[in-house]
Amino acid sequence: MAINADVQARYEARIDELFAGEEPRFHSGVTVLVRADVLDMLGYGDQPVILAEAKVRKSYDNHPEMTAEIWKKIPQWLESPAMVFVSDTNPDRLVFIAPEKIGDNTVRLIIAEELDNQGNRHLLLNAYSSEKSPFGRWLEDRLLLYADTKEAPRILGKYARRLRHVLEDPAFRPDARINGTGRGKQKALELGTILTEKKLEGYRKRTQRVEVSLPQQEQDPRTEKIQLAKSLHGRYLDTTRLTAERKEAEKKRLDAVIKTTPLEQIERFIGMLPN
């Protein structure tokens, strides 16, 4: 798995900030994953996944069931999706189907490639729940790229029986993606293969992924300030005569409020603490 605890913590903190009303960053969204196994296995490259932050609040306004806690699950869902389809409306995008539902609704995660100064990167364009998904048509149109054979049937519902036939019949194999070719690029050179969780398991064994942290320079200023404030606060508490229980309670109280505290107040708080 490519999920790093530090990266996940920063991502979750940023989600809390966006839900608390902070303005989204339009050109430097928070990192969702340093690298994505499923995307790399499918031939889309070993690149980080970056959040299109403006979509978080819009998604919540249009889909109030997409809470902050749901958004925090997305890194795990990208690494263990129930299915992955080529988008039927934009062939340069992928639609990840989460392995969990919100009520009776399926959750779609929309991924696109984006050029930045360092090369390609994956962009999490949107995430939303949908009451109805045209799985039957997507399967018939050869849009399926990946299916977890244990999780997908539960998500597919009435189309679950169809999945086995699609996986076994070569006629439903998708266009191959070879060196960037395929749907939305140029004519595919040959047919590809619908991959499953067994292929993903083998891929991970071959690549032996290890956790990767973000380079220090990629940490956003707010995260750095929060970490500094917590560190200085902890040092200050250690100099007091408070009981261990009281010190721990004070640390937890800071943890509970600092995620949604405006940056200016965090900086003032740091200035009040002894260095």
What can you see in these coordinates?
The two termini are 38 Å apart. By secondary structure, the protein is of the alpha+beta class. The protein is elongated and about 70 Å long. Strand 4 and strand 5 form a beta hairpin. It has helices at 5-19, 37-41, 54-62, 68-71, 74-79, 135-140, 152-156, 160-168, 197-207, 221-238, 244-258, 263-272; strands at 31-33, 49-51, 83-86, 93-97, 106-116, 119-130, 144-147, 195-196. It has an eight-stranded mixed β-sheet. Helix content is 41%, strand content 16%. The protein is built from twelve helices and eight strands.
* Spatial arrangement of strands, main beta sheet: 1-2-6-5-4-3-7-8
**Computed CA radius of gyration, to the nearest angstrom:** 21 Å
Judged by helices, strands and strand pairing, the structural class is: alpha+beta
Q: What's the mean pLDDT score? A: 83
What percent strand?
15-25%
* Overall morphology: elongated
Gap from first CA to last CA: 38 Å
The overall strand count is 8
Biggest sheet: strands, sense, closure?
Answer: 8 strands, mixed
How many distinct helices? 12
Order of helices and strands: HEHEHHHEEEEHEHHEHHHH
Low-confidence regions: 178-190
User: Roughly what percent helix?
Assistant: 40-55%
Q: How do you describe this structure in short?
A:
This protein is an alpha+beta fold and 275 residues long. 41% of the residues lie in helices and 16% in strands. The protein has an 8-stranded mixed beta sheet with strand order 1-2-6-5-4-3-7-8.
